[in-house]
Amino acid sequence: MTTSPTKLQLRNVSAGYGRKPVLHNVSLEIKGGKLAALVGPSGCGKTTLLRVVAGLLRPAKGEVLFGDQIYTDIPAERRAAVAVFQKPLLFPYLTVEENVAFGLKMRRTPNPERTRRVTEALRLVQLEGFERRRPSELSGGQAQRVSLARALVTEPRVLLLDEPFTALDAGLREEMRAFVGSLQRRLRITTLFVTHDQDEVVKMADEVVLLLDGRVEQIGPPRNFYVAPETPRAAQFFGWKVAAGVFRGCKVETALGSFSVPDGVGTPQDGICTVAVYPHKARLAAAVESQSATSPDCLEGRIEAIHDLGLRMQYVVQLGSGDLIEIETSTSQTDGCMSVQQVGARVLVRIPPEAVRFY
């Protein structure tokens, strides 16, 4: 089963339900054969965007393109875009084989071709020998694979995944991530994948589309959101701590603490900026009297909780501002660790320059 990679584009798309707007002037492009993760808080428009791409919701304005062809007015049944949802939504009275063949039967695909394609789809999802089983005889992961086979058997140009692993337990979810990622790369089907799980974003996505309030906040490789978020809102969504700052000479003062200003960061006319700090790159040290928490890039705090993660330790630290941050570190990354590793201990949180962004 092969498909030609199809570039997916949305141009200035606005959409909603009745008088309630959800998407506002959304433009994006996903290269052919790539997997893009669509992320954002609940209610930001992720599922609405999928419905627009699938042809289940007509946008109020804008265009949807598959390749160079405008598909905005092409109905869902002729759009060659299929969706897999959180629940497999299989017909309980049909066998696995009949469930997978359902879409082809509706399209009146000849029996020999239908049989060939169903066999191939079940082979792809590693369910040979399950043809005669009913959905009630399947595990959660097997049922989701049947749902995926039913989508793939129609040889779609675009695959839409709407949080398909949410209902699975942690181990099976990890297995399905690896399986779907491998299958997508092998088939080179352009895929738009909705998720709330940032582990899935890192492990599966070629690109990330961040939606906030129905607008695209940032698009790019997953790494960019962790090392160079373009806006304070993008930074905050991906775990950065954000605070208002005021320039004081070569420092910026915030409620979190003070930070050194690197060369090339100009002072705005009003002297006000926004600072984002990525706590996962911070390092801990025991607070001693000779160390000043008022020095730039060194924040004073108190350990509120410690979680042993095996190879790493996670510290929940309350800063002087009242903000809680989580810092994961190994023993070799902790200075004065015997003093640090106890709840209630005063600590200094050292922030490396690459963990600070100025806006």
Please explain how this structure is put together.
- With 359 residues, the protein is α+β, with helices and mostly antiparallel strands.
- The protein folds into two domains: 8-227, Rossmann fold; 239-358, Nucleic acid-binding proteins (OB fold (Dihydrolipoamide Acetyltransferase, E2P), Beta Barrel), CATH 2.40.50.
- 25% of the residues lie in helices and 33% in strands.
- It has nine helices and 20 strands.
- The protein has helices spanning 46-54, 96-106, 111-124, 140-152, 170-187, 198-204, 222-227, 232-237, 337-340; strands at residues 8-17, 20-30, 35-39, 61-66, 69-70, 81-84, 158-162, 190-194, 207-212, 215-220, 241-248, 251-254, 258-260, 272-277, 283-286, 298-308, 313-319, 324-329, 346-350, 356-358.
- Strands 6-7-8-3-9-10 form a six-stranded mixed beta sheet, sandwiched between helices.
- A hairpin with a 4-residue loop joins β17 (313-319) and β18.
- It is globular, with a radius of gyration of 25 Å.
- The model has no long low-confidence stretch (mean pLDDT 88).
Summarize the structure.
This protein has 359 residues and is an alpha+beta fold. It has nine helices and 20 strands.
